[in-house]
TrEMBL record:
<comment type="pathway">
    <text>Siderophore biosynthesis.</text>
</comment>
<dbReference type="Pfam" id="PF13523">
    <property type="entry name" value="Acetyltransf_8"/>
</dbReference>
<protein>
    <submittedName>
        <fullName>Siderophore synthetase small component, acetyltransferase</fullName>
    </submittedName>
</protein>
<dbReference type="InterPro" id="IPR016181">
    <property type="entry name" value="Acyl_CoA_acyltransferase"/>
</dbReference>
<dbReference type="InterPro" id="IPR019432">
    <property type="entry name" value="Acyltransferase_MbtK/IucB-like"/>
</dbReference>
<feature type="domain" description="Acyltransferase MbtK/IucB-like conserved">
    <location>
        <begin position="24"/>
        <end position="71"/>
    </location>
</feature>
Length: 201
């Protein structure tokens, strides 16, 4: 029987800020040169710690792609690759050791790989698009997240889309901020309504 993430579509798109943001499933091995470049980018290395030689990085992604509790996607803007995201099932993820997970909880890990978009306001529409994708294609009542507490960018995005800080948690590689985003609150959030207005109601 397919898992929640295996049932997710291979592609998705949503308009925001007069641009179209989207997702497409990772293509292996075609995407490896791009993923290798992103994982070795200066702004990515500390957070992701995957600046590995290509053979080791390939082994990592082969394992990730074989793991049926998650789906790996390339983030697109106007059909151009700008990032990478892992969408996962919270109850079957290691994060479930740090909070009381519900069966349909979903989460995501996001990497903006293209240096040209880092710090240029792309995070808000991408978070909106990812949240919309998850809630529209799963039965999740809640999205969970655990970004590094040192990453300031998530803090100013979180409130606009009803991502609420629960507490700090100590994970092996970081002190993380545990966030919850409830389905109804997301679709009523100021950030979502700003993109979709009356059409969202």
């Amino acid at each position: 029987m397919p898992t929640i993430t295996q049932n997710l579509p291979d592609t998705f798109a949503a308009d925001a800020y007069e641009k179209t943001f989207g997702l497409r499933a990772v293509k292996y091995p075609e995407d490896m040169p791009m993923l290798y470049q992103w994982m070795h980018a200066e702004h990515v290395v500390e957070q992701w710690q995957l600046h590995l030689p290509m053979p080791q990085l390939q082994v990592h992604f082969e394992k990730m792609l074989a793991d049926d509790h998650q789906r790996l996607y390339i983030v697109l803007c106007e059909d151009m690759p700008i990032g990478y995201v892992e969408i996962y099932e919270g109850a079957r993820d290691r994060l479930s050791h740090y909070y009381k997970a519900e069966e349909n909880d979903m989460g995501w890990h996001l990497l903006l790989g293209d240096t040209a978009v880092v710090g240029k306001g792309y995070l808000k529409p991408i978070v909106m698009m990812l949240s919309k994708f998850v809630f529209e294609h799963t039965d999740a009542k809640k999205i969970v997240g655990e970004p590094d507490s040192k990453v300031e960018a998530y803090k100013w995005v979180a409130d606009g889309f009803a991502y609420q800080l629960q507490r700090l948690i100590d994970m092996p590689e970081k002190k993380a901020s545990l966030y919850f985003c409830n389905r109804d609150e997301f679709f009523e959030s100021s950030g979502y309504l700003k993109f979709y207005g009356a059409a969202a109601l």
